[in-house]
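Lecture 7, part B: from sequences to assemblies.

Below are the input chains for today's worked example.
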Amino acid sequence: MTGGVSLAEICVVACAEVWRGDGEVLASPIGIVPTIGARLAKATFEPDLLVTDGEALVVANPLAVGAGRHEKVVEGWMPYRSVFDVVWSGRRHVMMGATQIDRHGNQNIACIGEWARPKAQLLGVRGAPGNTVNHATSYWVPNHSTRVFVEHVDFVSGVGYPSPTPFHEIRRVVSSKGVFDFETSDRTMRLRSFHPGVSVDDIVAATGFPLVVDDAVQETRPPTDDELRLIREALDPGDLRGAEVR
Amino acid sequence: MTDKRMTEADVVAELRDGMTIGIGGWGSRRKPMSLVRAILRSPLRDLTVVSYGGPDVGMLCAAGKVRKAVYGFVSLDSIPLEPHFRVARQQGAIEAVELDEGMLQWGLYAAALRLPFLPTRAGLHSGVIDINPQLRTVRSPYDDGEELVAVPAIALDVALVHMNRADASGNGQYLGPDLYFDDLFCMAARRRFLSCERILTTHALLTEGSVHTLRINRMMTDGVVEAPNGAHFTSCDPDYGRDEAFQKEYASTDWSEFKARYIDVDEAEYRRLVTR
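Predicted structure of the full complex, as structure tokens:
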């Protein structure tokens, strides 16, 4: 493969990895990098995943992100009504964004400041409360900083640990600096891997709460040649991924 | 069959201050915007708006029509944050009921089925419970004894939806990929008004799409408005996509200026202005 691997490409693969082992479930990525990641996972190591075109069609072939007409091999129909049914049945793994996230995996996309009269109104809770108590959830943070990784979220949109239902699982957080999980005895956030060129100290300094760092920490794996080819030629030929990572 | 054809002005004449109005579509997709524009031009006020919100909620907030908004989100999709809704929330200008998207569906469905509530796990342990003191939980009467959120019925005075096609008696047809929750909005409301791109004879409906596209039947509607480009600038696939350039202009233009240019004109003039 020619050309150095970009941070965005590292992030795409780290996002793809969250769906490893999921089998025949609906992968619902929110954002460009997670979308490329889900489609990459399906095109390589997790072929049974169901992925949509971003709207209501379940598409079997590797589709590029962004505008333009692409040949879709439609294998199913997934309007919002069906998505909600799938959410509540549990056969889904969503990767949402997070304006704020805390060490327990509580996520906020609703507002900054007091909800009653917010300093900044954001999207609203969307499906985060229902998603998190019904099926696996991961998060994508393209701008890792102490403004995002906070001691306390201003509003709990996505529910973190301790698990309120048997179906709750916060699988992974992928940021522009590293990959995080909750595989600790008290289910607090652990650094799983640091991206190439990023130090553990960088990550600790950019995180607004004490992060668990244990001996298992390693460098985030780079894309394989095959994965790079898929990302660059099939899934994101317009290079939309670069603009999302800050 | 009863001929239910009417105009946007006829619909607005049926509305009253303080009503609870459900608006179909999703974000910036297939919103009954010509009906929303007609409300913007009217003296109506103190409305409670229930919506998977997009520019419908934003514009009604900007125009001071909203007392209370009930929503899971308000977004323009390609522009994630709705500017006027943000201002209304940040200034404390509106009352807000923020729910999980699925809870909103459940509330509409409960109203449609004339049930007091429907149970769900969505909302448990989230901030939604803290900010909605009206929400209660219910314990399963069976051996599992699980505690669930009892989403109360969201009964609507009026529902407004936009379809691709309809007949004069109020059978509605959507031709795009997603009905969203338009059928539930209609079923949850006492009075239901449907706008559409084109009114066809009943026998022509199946020349447009398969029987599966006929999801709004005439029991679910009280009035039909022919509104070509009626969802503009939101998307109305396959008739037209979202007018992204116009949406950008909407999101970046001062409201009073936008209103003077595009709202304080009649619908025919609006259509002329946006056909560029």
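Note for the exam: The longest helix of chain B spans residues 101-112. Keep this in mind when comparing with the next example.
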